[in-house]
Specification:
single chain; about 80 residues; mainly alpha; about 70% helix
Length: about 80
Amino acid sequence: MAEADALPAALAATLAQLLPAWNAQALARYLRENCAYLATLRRRAISYWNCYYRRRYRAWEDYPGCRAMAALRTLAMLTPR
């Protein structure tokens, strides 16, 4: 795997390790209050996949960035305490 190809997988793995340490409620609140930013982030992730990784990950759903975005969307739906 080329170094550039390893970046999405490495980033997804790093996020998976770091997310449990974050304050989930605070991050969920931030994402809910900034839904336009979350939508922009998703569009950028899709664009990045389309430009650089579409050959390696034929389907958007297979791209690690898609899984990261899904995790953020799920987090945004957490019910505030």
